[in-house]
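User: Structure with aspartyl phosphate, C-alpha coordinates only please.
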Amino acid sequence: MGYRVVVVGATGNVGREMLNILDERQFPIDEIAVLASRRSLGTEVSFGDKTLKTQDLDTFDFTGWDMALFAVGSDATKVYAPKSAAAGCVVIDNSSLYRYDPDVPLIVPEVNADAVHGYSKKNIIANPNCSTAQMVVALKPLHDRAKIKRVVVSTYQSVSGAGKEGIDELWDQTKSIYNPTDDKPPKKFTKQIAFNVIPHIDVFMEDGSTKEEWKMVAETKKIVDTSIKVTATCVRVPVFVGHSEAINIEFEDFLDEDEARDILREAPGVMVIDKREDGGYVSPAECVGDYATFISRIRQDSTIDNGINLWCVSDNLRKGAALNAVQIAETLGREVLKKG
Ligand SMILES: NC(=O)C1=CN([C@@H]2O[C@H](COP(=O)(O)OP(=O)(O)OC[C@H]3O[C@@H](n4cnc5c(N)ncnc54)[C@H](OP(=O)(O)O)[C@@H]3O)[C@@H](O)[C@H]2O)C=CC1
Ligand SMILES: N[C@@H](CC(=O)OP(=O)(O)O)C(=O)O
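Assistant:
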Protein backbone atom coordinates (compact mmCIF):
# COMPACT_ATOMS: atom_id res chain seq x y z
CA MET A 1 0.00 0.00 0.00
CA GLY A 2 1.27 3.46 -0.88
CA TYR A 3 0.32 7.10 -0.28
CA ARG A 4 -2.14 9.53 -1.81
CA VAL A 5 0.13 12.49 -2.58
CA VAL A 6 -0.65 16.04 -3.73
CA VAL A 7 1.96 18.26 -5.43
CA VAL A 8 0.95 21.92 -5.05
CA GLY A 9 2.64 24.30 -7.52
CA ALA A 10 3.23 21.48 -10.02
CA THR A 11 3.76 23.86 -12.98
CA GLY A 12 6.65 25.65 -11.24
CA ASN A 13 10.38 24.87 -11.18
CA VAL A 14 10.25 23.27 -7.75
CA GLY A 15 6.95 21.44 -8.36
CA ARG A 16 8.25 19.86 -11.57
CA GLU A 17 11.42 18.74 -9.79
CA MET A 18 9.28 17.25 -7.01
CA LEU A 19 7.48 15.12 -9.59
CA ASN A 20 10.79 14.05 -11.15
CA ILE A 21 12.26 13.11 -7.78
CA LEU A 22 9.15 11.28 -6.51
CA ASP A 23 9.41 9.18 -9.67
CA GLU A 24 13.21 8.73 -9.58
CA ARG A 25 13.13 7.56 -5.96
CA GLN A 26 10.09 5.37 -6.55
CA PHE A 27 8.19 6.97 -3.69
CA PRO A 28 5.31 4.62 -2.88
CA ILE A 29 2.34 6.39 -4.45
CA ASP A 30 -1.17 4.98 -4.87
CA GLU A 31 -2.60 8.18 -6.31
CA ILE A 32 -1.16 11.59 -7.19
CA ALA A 33 -2.85 14.95 -7.80
CA VAL A 34 -1.07 17.94 -9.31
CA LEU A 35 -2.32 21.44 -8.51
CA ALA A 36 -1.55 24.98 -9.64
CA SER A 37 -3.49 28.21 -10.06
CA ARG A 38 -6.72 28.38 -12.04
CA ARG A 39 -4.85 29.94 -14.98
CA SER A 40 -2.96 26.64 -15.41
CA LEU A 41 -6.05 24.42 -15.23
CA GLY A 42 -5.51 21.43 -17.52
CA THR A 43 -1.82 22.17 -18.12
CA GLU A 44 0.05 18.91 -18.60
CA VAL A 45 3.04 17.97 -16.44
CA SER A 46 5.20 14.85 -16.62
CA PHE A 47 5.39 12.24 -13.90
CA GLY A 48 7.68 9.44 -15.04
CA ASP A 49 6.19 8.10 -18.26
CA LYS A 50 2.76 9.54 -17.40
CA THR A 51 1.29 12.91 -18.24
CA LEU A 52 -0.89 14.49 -15.56
CA LYS A 53 -3.35 17.39 -15.90
CA THR A 54 -3.18 20.13 -13.29
CA GLN A 55 -6.20 20.89 -11.15
CA ASP A 56 -7.19 24.16 -9.49
CA LEU A 57 -5.75 24.52 -5.98
CA ASP A 58 -8.61 26.83 -5.03
CA THR A 59 -11.31 24.17 -5.40
CA PHE A 60 -9.32 21.07 -4.44
CA ASP A 61 -10.56 18.97 -1.49
CA PHE A 62 -7.61 17.60 0.53
CA THR A 63 -9.80 15.15 2.48
CA GLY A 64 -8.46 11.58 2.28
CA TRP A 65 -5.04 12.60 0.91
CA ASP A 66 -1.98 11.68 3.01
CA MET A 67 0.52 14.42 2.25
CA ALA A 68 0.77 17.61 0.20
CA LEU A 69 4.11 18.93 -1.03
CA PHE A 70 3.66 22.70 -1.36
CA ALA A 71 5.79 24.96 -3.63
CA VAL A 72 3.62 28.00 -4.30
CA GLY A 73 5.24 30.77 -2.21
CA SER A 74 4.09 32.21 1.12
CA ASP A 75 0.95 34.09 -0.04
CA ALA A 76 -0.83 31.06 -1.49
CA THR A 77 0.57 28.80 1.25
CA LYS A 78 -1.02 31.02 3.89
CA VAL A 79 -4.45 30.42 2.36
CA TYR A 80 -4.24 26.76 1.36
CA ALA A 81 -1.80 24.99 3.74
CA PRO A 82 -4.16 25.36 6.74
CA LYS A 83 -6.98 23.84 4.62
CA SER A 84 -4.83 20.83 3.78
CA ALA A 85 -3.64 20.42 7.39
CA ALA A 86 -7.19 20.71 8.75
CA ALA A 87 -8.33 17.99 6.31
CA GLY A 88 -5.67 15.64 7.77
CA CYS A 89 -3.32 15.90 4.77
CA VAL A 90 0.17 16.64 6.16
CA VAL A 91 1.76 19.70 4.53
CA ILE A 92 5.45 19.70 3.58
CA ASP A 93 5.99 23.35 2.74
CA ASN A 94 8.77 24.93 0.70
CA SER A 95 7.90 28.54 1.51
CA SER A 96 9.35 30.47 4.44
CA LEU A 97 5.90 31.00 6.04
CA TYR A 98 6.10 28.40 8.82
CA ARG A 99 9.86 27.89 9.19
CA TYR A 100 10.24 29.92 12.37
CA ASP A 101 7.03 28.71 14.03
CA PRO A 102 8.05 26.75 17.17
CA ASP A 103 5.17 24.33 16.53
CA VAL A 104 6.44 23.45 13.03
CA PRO A 105 9.54 21.28 12.57
CA LEU A 106 12.12 22.58 10.08
CA ILE A 107 13.89 19.56 8.67
CA VAL A 108 16.94 18.56 6.67
CA PRO A 109 16.78 14.77 7.00
CA GLU A 110 20.57 14.24 7.07
CA VAL A 111 20.72 16.59 10.06
CA ASN A 112 17.56 16.46 12.20
CA ALA A 113 15.24 13.73 10.88
CA ASP A 114 14.03 13.07 14.45
CA ALA A 115 12.25 16.41 14.45
CA VAL A 116 9.62 14.85 12.16
CA HIS A 117 7.64 13.69 15.20
CA GLY A 118 6.80 17.34 15.94
CA TYR A 119 4.66 17.52 12.78
CA SER A 120 1.44 16.68 14.60
CA LYS A 121 1.03 20.01 16.41
CA LYS A 122 -0.03 21.69 13.15
CA ASN A 123 0.12 18.88 10.59
CA ILE A 124 2.79 20.98 8.86
CA ILE A 125 6.53 20.43 8.26
CA ALA A 126 8.74 23.20 6.84
CA ASN A 127 11.48 22.81 4.24
CA PRO A 128 14.40 25.23 4.74
CA ASN A 129 15.74 27.95 2.50
CA CYS A 130 17.86 26.57 -0.34
CA SER A 131 21.11 28.19 0.82
CA THR A 132 20.60 26.94 4.36
CA ALA A 133 19.81 23.35 3.32
CA GLN A 134 23.07 22.72 1.49
CA MET A 135 25.15 24.52 4.12
CA VAL A 136 23.81 22.55 7.12
CA VAL A 137 24.42 19.22 5.38
CA ALA A 138 28.12 20.17 5.43
CA LEU A 139 28.16 21.84 8.86
CA LYS A 140 26.47 19.13 10.92
CA PRO A 141 29.14 16.38 10.75
CA LEU A 142 31.90 18.93 11.43
CA HIS A 143 29.93 20.40 14.34
CA ASP A 144 29.53 16.91 15.85
CA ARG A 145 33.33 16.53 15.86
CA ALA A 146 34.71 19.95 16.80
CA LYS A 147 31.73 22.18 17.80
CA ILE A 148 31.21 25.15 15.54
CA LYS A 149 31.38 28.61 17.15
CA ARG A 150 30.93 30.87 14.13
CA VAL A 151 30.28 30.65 10.40
CA VAL A 152 31.01 33.36 7.81
CA VAL A 153 29.30 32.53 4.52
CA SER A 154 29.08 34.28 1.14
CA THR A 155 26.60 32.84 -1.35
CA TYR A 156 26.54 32.84 -5.15
CA GLN A 157 22.87 32.04 -5.86
CA SER A 158 21.45 31.07 -9.23
CA VAL A 159 18.46 32.81 -10.82
CA SER A 160 16.25 29.70 -10.55
CA GLY A 161 15.98 30.55 -6.86
CA ALA A 162 13.72 33.37 -8.05
CA GLY A 163 11.35 31.05 -9.93
CA LYS A 164 10.39 30.86 -13.59
CA GLU A 165 10.55 34.65 -13.93
CA GLY A 166 14.15 34.68 -12.72
CA ILE A 167 15.23 32.15 -15.32
CA ASP A 168 13.41 34.00 -18.11
CA GLU A 169 14.98 37.33 -17.13
CA LEU A 170 18.55 36.00 -17.30
CA TRP A 171 17.85 34.29 -20.65
CA ASP A 172 16.13 37.30 -22.27
CA GLN A 173 18.59 39.86 -20.92
CA THR A 174 21.61 37.83 -22.01
CA LYS A 175 20.26 37.70 -25.58
CA SER A 176 19.33 41.39 -25.53
CA ILE A 177 22.87 42.47 -24.62
CA TYR A 178 23.84 41.54 -28.19
CA ASN A 179 20.81 43.29 -29.67
CA PRO A 180 20.61 46.93 -28.53
CA THR A 181 17.17 47.39 -30.17
CA ASP A 182 15.71 44.75 -27.82
CA ASP A 183 16.26 46.35 -24.41
CA LYS A 184 15.28 44.13 -21.43
CA PRO A 185 15.34 46.26 -18.28
CA PRO A 186 15.32 44.52 -14.87
CA LYS A 187 11.89 43.35 -13.65
CA LYS A 188 12.31 40.38 -11.31
CA PHE A 189 15.73 41.52 -10.14
CA THR A 190 16.65 45.02 -8.93
CA LYS A 191 19.51 45.46 -11.40
CA GLN A 192 20.76 43.88 -14.61
CA ILE A 193 21.53 40.20 -13.90
CA ALA A 194 23.11 39.27 -17.25
CA PHE A 195 26.91 39.62 -16.97
CA ASN A 196 26.51 41.09 -13.48
CA VAL A 197 26.15 40.10 -9.80
CA ILE A 198 23.62 41.58 -7.35
CA PRO A 199 24.29 41.65 -3.58
CA HIS A 200 20.60 41.59 -2.71
CA ILE A 201 18.18 38.65 -2.30
CA ASP A 202 14.76 39.11 -0.66
CA VAL A 203 13.86 42.29 1.25
CA PHE A 204 16.11 44.51 3.36
CA MET A 205 15.89 44.24 7.16
CA GLU A 206 16.32 47.14 9.62
CA ASP A 207 19.94 46.24 10.42
CA GLY A 208 21.01 46.43 6.76
CA SER A 209 21.08 42.69 6.15
CA THR A 210 18.63 41.06 3.75
CA LYS A 211 15.92 38.55 4.68
CA GLU A 212 17.79 35.83 2.76
CA GLU A 213 20.84 36.47 4.99
CA TRP A 214 18.67 36.50 8.11
CA LYS A 215 17.08 33.18 7.06
CA MET A 216 20.51 31.49 6.91
CA VAL A 217 21.21 32.69 10.46
CA ALA A 218 17.84 31.74 11.98
CA GLU A 219 17.42 28.44 10.14
CA THR A 220 20.93 27.14 10.89
CA LYS A 221 20.23 27.73 14.57
CA LYS A 222 16.86 25.94 14.42
CA ILE A 223 18.16 22.94 12.43
CA VAL A 224 21.67 22.39 13.82
CA ASP A 225 22.32 24.22 17.11
CA THR A 226 21.08 27.52 18.58
CA SER A 227 24.62 28.27 19.81
CA ILE A 228 26.11 28.59 16.29
CA LYS A 229 26.70 32.19 15.18
CA VAL A 230 26.26 32.80 11.44
CA THR A 231 26.95 35.91 9.39
CA ALA A 232 25.98 35.81 5.72
CA THR A 233 26.22 37.84 2.51
CA CYS A 234 23.83 36.55 -0.16
CA VAL A 235 24.51 37.40 -3.80
CA ARG A 236 22.58 36.63 -7.01
CA VAL A 237 24.80 35.53 -9.90
CA PRO A 238 24.07 34.88 -13.61
CA VAL A 239 23.88 31.09 -13.29
CA PHE A 240 20.65 29.25 -14.19
CA VAL A 241 20.73 26.42 -11.61
CA GLY A 242 23.09 25.63 -8.71
CA HIS A 243 23.90 27.67 -5.62
CA SER A 244 27.51 28.03 -4.43
CA GLU A 245 28.82 29.10 -1.05
CA ALA A 246 32.23 30.09 0.29
CA ILE A 247 32.11 29.05 3.95
CA ASN A 248 34.54 29.95 6.73
CA ILE A 249 34.03 27.95 9.94
CA GLU A 250 35.52 28.65 13.38
CA PHE A 251 35.46 25.70 15.80
CA GLU A 252 35.91 25.37 19.55
CA ASP A 253 38.36 22.50 19.06
CA PHE A 254 41.14 22.17 16.52
CA LEU A 255 40.14 20.29 13.37
CA ASP A 256 42.81 19.35 10.87
CA GLU A 257 41.87 19.83 7.19
CA ASP A 258 42.59 16.15 6.41
CA GLU A 259 40.28 15.01 9.20
CA ALA A 260 37.61 17.48 8.02
CA ARG A 261 37.90 15.98 4.53
CA ASP A 262 37.56 12.43 5.92
CA ILE A 263 34.54 13.38 8.03
CA LEU A 264 32.81 14.99 5.05
CA ARG A 265 33.58 11.98 2.84
CA GLU A 266 31.58 9.81 5.26
CA ALA A 267 28.76 12.32 5.78
CA PRO A 268 25.28 11.55 4.39
CA GLY A 269 24.29 13.67 1.39
CA VAL A 270 27.85 14.97 0.88
CA MET A 271 30.23 14.30 -2.01
CA VAL A 272 33.82 15.52 -1.57
CA ILE A 273 35.64 16.50 -4.78
CA ASP A 274 38.80 18.16 -3.59
CA LYS A 275 41.92 17.81 -5.69
CA ARG A 276 44.41 20.64 -5.54
CA GLU A 277 44.80 20.92 -9.28
CA ASP A 278 43.07 22.61 -12.21
CA GLY A 279 39.43 21.59 -12.23
CA GLY A 280 39.68 19.54 -9.01
CA TYR A 281 36.60 21.20 -7.51
CA VAL A 282 32.92 21.44 -8.38
CA SER A 283 31.23 24.40 -10.08
CA PRO A 284 27.45 24.98 -10.11
CA ALA A 285 26.99 23.92 -13.74
CA GLU A 286 28.32 20.48 -12.77
CA CYS A 287 25.89 19.86 -9.90
CA VAL A 288 22.65 20.27 -11.87
CA GLY A 289 20.38 17.24 -11.61
CA ASP A 290 22.38 15.69 -8.78
CA TYR A 291 21.27 14.89 -5.24
CA ALA A 292 24.57 15.57 -3.47
CA THR A 293 25.94 18.64 -1.77
CA PHE A 294 29.45 18.90 -3.23
CA ILE A 295 32.33 20.08 -1.06
CA SER A 296 35.65 21.27 -2.48
CA ARG A 297 38.58 23.54 -1.55
CA ILE A 298 38.78 22.26 2.05
CA ARG A 299 41.67 24.04 3.74
CA GLN A 300 42.90 25.37 7.06
CA ASP A 301 42.21 29.05 7.83
CA SER A 302 45.54 29.99 9.41
CA THR A 303 44.32 33.46 10.47
CA ILE A 304 42.39 31.99 13.43
CA ASP A 305 43.15 29.17 15.90
CA ASN A 306 40.56 26.62 14.79
CA GLY A 307 39.38 27.54 11.30
CA ILE A 308 38.47 25.74 8.11
CA ASN A 309 37.48 27.18 4.72
CA LEU A 310 35.46 25.26 2.16
CA TRP A 311 33.45 25.61 -1.06
CA CYS A 312 29.93 24.14 -1.12
CA VAL A 313 27.80 23.65 -4.26
CA SER A 314 24.39 22.05 -4.75
CA ASP A 315 21.39 22.00 -7.10
CA ASN A 316 19.11 24.55 -5.41
CA LEU A 317 15.97 23.12 -7.00
CA ARG A 318 16.89 19.66 -5.69
CA LYS A 319 18.65 19.63 -2.28
CA GLY A 320 17.56 23.26 -1.81
CA ALA A 321 13.90 22.48 -2.36
CA ALA A 322 12.36 19.46 -4.14
CA LEU A 323 14.74 16.70 -3.05
CA ASN A 324 14.73 17.81 0.56
CA ALA A 325 10.90 17.93 0.50
CA VAL A 326 10.73 14.38 -0.89
CA GLN A 327 13.28 13.21 1.72
CA ILE A 328 11.00 14.70 4.38
CA ALA A 329 8.06 12.83 2.84
CA GLU A 330 10.11 9.62 2.96
CA THR A 331 10.98 10.27 6.61
CA LEU A 332 7.35 11.02 7.48
CA GLY A 333 6.26 7.82 5.75
CA ARG A 334 8.96 5.67 7.34
CA GLU A 335 8.76 7.06 10.90
CA VAL A 336 5.13 8.08 11.27
CA LEU A 337 2.54 7.15 8.64
CA LYS A 338 4.09 3.72 7.90
CA LYS A 339 2.05 2.87 4.81
CA GLY A 340 4.65 2.28 2.12
N1 LIG B 1 13.25 25.81 0.00
C1 LIG B 1 13.79 26.67 -0.83
O1 LIG B 1 14.86 27.15 -0.66
C2 LIG B 1 13.10 27.05 -2.01
C3 LIG B 1 11.78 27.28 -1.89
N2 LIG B 1 11.10 27.67 -2.91
C4 LIG B 1 9.68 27.90 -2.65
O2 LIG B 1 8.93 27.29 -3.64
C5 LIG B 1 8.07 28.26 -4.22
C6 LIG B 1 7.91 27.97 -5.70
O3 LIG B 1 9.16 28.21 -6.31
P1 LIG B 1 9.36 27.97 -7.86
O4 LIG B 1 8.81 26.65 -8.25
O5 LIG B 1 10.79 28.25 -8.13
O6 LIG B 1 8.43 29.13 -8.46
P2 LIG B 1 7.78 29.20 -9.88
O7 LIG B 1 7.52 30.63 -10.12
O8 LIG B 1 8.58 28.46 -10.87
O9 LIG B 1 6.37 28.42 -9.71
C7 LIG B 1 5.36 28.88 -8.84
C8 LIG B 1 4.28 27.82 -8.72
O10 LIG B 1 3.32 28.25 -7.77
C9 LIG B 1 2.03 28.27 -8.38
N3 LIG B 1 1.23 29.33 -7.77
C10 LIG B 1 1.62 30.59 -7.51
N4 LIG B 1 0.60 31.28 -6.94
C11 LIG B 1 -0.45 30.42 -6.85
C12 LIG B 1 -1.77 30.52 -6.37
N5 LIG B 1 -2.24 31.64 -5.85
N6 LIG B 1 -2.57 29.43 -6.43
C13 LIG B 1 -2.11 28.28 -6.96
N7 LIG B 1 -0.84 28.11 -7.45
C14 LIG B 1 -0.04 29.18 -7.39
C15 LIG B 1 2.30 28.50 -9.84
O11 LIG B 1 1.19 28.07 -10.61
P3 LIG B 1 0.88 28.75 -12.04
O12 LIG B 1 1.85 28.13 -13.01
O13 LIG B 1 -0.52 28.34 -12.27
O14 LIG B 1 1.07 30.21 -11.88
C16 LIG B 1 3.52 27.59 -10.04
O15 LIG B 1 3.11 26.24 -10.10
C17 LIG B 1 8.75 29.62 -3.93
O16 LIG B 1 7.87 30.67 -3.90
C18 LIG B 1 9.39 29.37 -2.61
O17 LIG B 1 8.44 29.60 -1.60
C19 LIG B 1 11.72 27.84 -4.08
C20 LIG B 1 13.04 27.62 -4.28
C21 LIG B 1 13.85 27.18 -3.24
N1 LIG C 1 15.37 32.90 -1.95
C1 LIG C 1 15.91 31.77 -2.61
C2 LIG C 1 14.82 30.80 -3.05
C3 LIG C 1 13.63 30.78 -2.16
O1 LIG C 1 12.51 30.72 -2.60
O2 LIG C 1 13.92 30.90 -0.88
P1 LIG C 1 12.82 30.97 0.27
O3 LIG C 1 12.00 29.72 0.16
O4 LIG C 1 13.58 31.05 1.52
O5 LIG C 1 11.98 32.21 0.03
C4 LIG C 1 16.69 32.25 -3.81
O6 LIG C 1 16.27 33.26 -4.33
O7 LIG C 1 17.64 31.65 -4.25
